[in-house]
Structures are given as structure tokens and as C-alpha cells.
Amino acid sequence: MKIAIIGGGGREHAILKKIKSPDRHIFMVPGNAGMATEATCVNLSTSDTEGILNFAKQQKLDFIIVSPDNPLVEGLVDCLEEAGFACFGPRKCGARLEGSKIFAKEFMQRHQIPTASYHAFENLQQAQTFLKQTSFPCVIKADGLAFGKGVVIARNLQEGMDALKEMMEDKIFGESGTRVLIEEFLEGKEVSVLAFCDGLNLKIMPPAMDYKKALEGNQGLNTGGMGCIAPNPYFNEKIAQECQENIFLPTLKGMREENLDFRGCLYFGLILSAKGVKVLEYNCRFGDPEAQTLLPLLQNDLLEIMQACSKKQLASQEVCFSTLASCCVVLASQGYPQHFETGNPISYPSDLEICFAGVKHDQGKLVNSSGRVLSITSSAPTLEEARELSYERIAQVSLANGYYRRDIAQI
């Protein structure tokens, strides 16, 4: 069986590890050097729709997993499915839930799904006028995709004005900042809940907690994620029931009513606020590092689940997760997400299980090629044991100017 996984980061490596078997030839598009011993890496950009389609035809692929947000939002699944290829990942219409924060907010409003109050703007002066009248802190978000960095918590008017100017005038996120949201600031513990979805049914994964801030104590800038744990210790049965009734099922119903073709992984970014559970955001794919944290706990064949989603047969597909706790710690290059070194050699024991993200080969050596380099995940009967194992293992990795938070899973 020939399978392609579109993407080249830690999330995609976690997917690869979960579906690989001797009877499956797996292509990574583009993959990275850390995956090259487990799959065939193909030097194509994830945004090269025509190139990916031609490759799929040449190889006569049996199944394609479209993992990153950009190609999903741009409609890669639409193109592949229209050419006859079975895929895991939502079509463009479903991916709008992540591709446009304003669309997602309006969707939630239409279907009475609890979320923070907000105002949307596409004119800088109007946004600035509103900001002068609002209370602080508030949240300012670029409407489109911004690599997990398009969200600013403005503590005062000056910070808010600076964020608006950077997004709407300086275009630090390109066209993603053409429109912005100014949103009510909510306080509470955050929860990541991922679900397999075939458009008709949802099968929920264990709740997770992502550590987004670069520095210990949840300080510093937002990143793509510095670590993750599961299950989330703040998520209980009562909260799960509230989410099922007020968020998960209304979202599924709303997608069906609006013909949003969503066959993939639906991510609910939630906050446990004093006013109840509210949705901070939707994502249209596995989170990173949530994928590295959750997939090792999955007890069924991930590929079979993905195929069931593609065929709208998820209802009859068994999806079971281990009751173990899981802890993922991310190794980054010092200074990430701003200024950091690349090209530093990485060394580690050959038997160490690693999900590689930003790595490449340089003169025969594995070196870092981006800020987030790799992650280590451990599972154990308790979160404390899983945490201890992950830190023991990541200490065996050597990277000049490498950095990882030492407070992951400290509850």
C-alpha cells in the first residue's frame, strides 16, 4: 500500500510512527532528514498543489494524509479528491474554521456555541477608535493563518495600538492581518480537545494541555508549542458533558447544516472560564505537540481510523486510547521564536525515540534547520512518572544552544 503524508514537522513524524508497517510504503512530502530512515522523503513544497497531484498520479497513491494547515486551507484535499485520491483532511470549506478566525466566530455565533465576545475590523482607523473605548487586557488576532503567532494579549492601549499597526499596516503576517479581531480576554485553564471527524460523527481523544509560551512559568512569546501533557488534569467528567452538549455536538450539527465537508481531525481550543467552557479557536488538523502527545496512547490502527473518516464510516470504527499519562517536551534553539541559530549538530543515542521537526543533513551531520528542533514523548501510569521519563530522555540529546522548558507537567 502506498501512502503519502503531506508535511515535514514533529506532528507528521508522530503520524508516520503510528502508521508505518512493513506492508506500507510511506512517502513524506517533504518530510525532513530525521524521518529519512523510516520513509521516503519527497522534495516538494506543501503548497505545490500541482506537483503533489502529479506525484500522486505517478505513484498511484492509495491514501493521502494532508496534515498542515496551509495546504488544507488552500484546498489541497479538494484537488486530490477530485482527481480520485482518498484523503484524510477537510476540504477547503471545512478548513475555513481555522483559516479565518472571523468566519469561525460568526459560525459559533450562528450556532450558539459559547465563545468570547468580539468585534471584527478591516480598517485600521476604525479598529484604533474601538480600542480606545475598550477595557484591558484584550486579545487581538490576525484573521488568517499566522504560524501560531497571530495572537496578542494587549495589556494596555499602547500594546494594542502597536499590535494593530504591526498586523494591519506593517503586514507582519502578510494578508492574514488584513482583517483583525478584537476580543474579550478570558481567564482560566486552557484545554486542547482533538476529535476524529467524518462529517457525521466525532470520536473524541483524551483532553490535552499545550504549553505555548517560550519560557518557564508561562512567560515570553507564544510559540508553536514547547510541550504538552495528556490527560489534562483540569478536565473532568462534568466539564466533558458540558462540552459535549454545548460545543462538540453543536459544532458537528452546524458543520452539517452549512455543508462544511470536514473529514479529518477537528481541534477545539477551549478555556475553562468563570462563565463556563468557551471556545478560543478551532483548528482543522492535529495540533503540534498534541499529536506527539496523544498518538502514542492510541490503541487502534491510525490509518484505519483515517480511512474510516475519509469514507464517512467513523461510527463503526473502534477508537480506543490507553489510560496512561503522556508528557511531551520540545527542544528548541535558544532565542526561538525570534532570533535563533541554525546549523548546529544534533547528537543522541541511536535507540532514543524522537519526533524530529526542524532538522536537515549538512555534510553528513544532522543539524537544526529551524527554531523548534525535536520532541520527546513518554507515557507512564502517572503524569509524574511520564514527566520524569521525558526529562531523562531529552537530557541525552546534545544541541549547542539548545533549550527546553523544565516545567512541563508541573501542575
Automatic annotation (TrEMBL):
Presence of keyword Nucleotide-binding: yes
EC number from the UniProt entry: 6.3.4.13
One Gene Ontology term of the molecular function aspect: phosphoribosylamine-glycine ligase activity
The UniProt record lists the keyword Nucleotide-binding: yes
Annotated ATP-grasp domain residues: 105-311
SUPFAM superfamilies named among the record's database cross-references: Glutathione synthetase ATP-binding domain-like, PreATP-grasp domain, Rudiment single hybrid motif
Gene3D superfamilies to which the protein is assigned, alphabetical: 3.40.50.20, ATP-grasp fold, A domain (3.30.1490.20), ATP-grasp fold, B domain (3.30.470.20), Phosphoribosylglycinamide synthetase, C-terminal domain (3.90.600.10)
Keywords annotated in UniProt: ATP-binding, Ligase, Nucleotide-binding, Purine biosynthesis
This protein's pathway: Purine metabolism; IMP biosynthesis via de novo pathway; N(1)-(5-phospho-D-ribosyl)glycinamide from 5-phospho-alpha-D-ribose 1-diphosphate: step 2/2
Cofactor: Mg(2+); Mn(2+)
Top-level taxon: Bacteria
Catalyses which reaction(s): 5-phospho-beta-D-ribosylamine + glycine + ATP = N(1)-(5-phospho-beta-D-ribosyl)glycinamide + ADP + phosphate + H(+)
UniProt-listed PROSITE patterns: ATP_GRASP, GARS
Entries under Pfam families matching the protein: GARS_A (PF01071), GARS_C (PF02843), GARS_N (PF02844)
InterPro entries: ATP-grasp, ATP_grasp_subdomain_1, PreATP-grasp_dom_sf, PRibGlycinamid_synth_ATP-grasp, PRibGlycinamide_synth, PRibGlycinamide_synth_C-dom, PRibGlycinamide_synth_C_sf, PRibGlycinamide_synth_CS
UniProt xrefs under PANTHER family: PHOSPHORIBOSYLAMINE--GLYCINE LIGASE, PHOSPHORIBOSYLAMINE--GLYCINE LIGASE, CHLOROPLASTIC
Family: Belongs to the GARS family.
Protein's name in the database: Phosphoribosylamine--glycine ligase
Organism: Helicobacter baculiformis
Organism lineage: Bacteria, Pseudomonadati, Campylobacterota, Epsilonproteobacteria, Campylobacterales
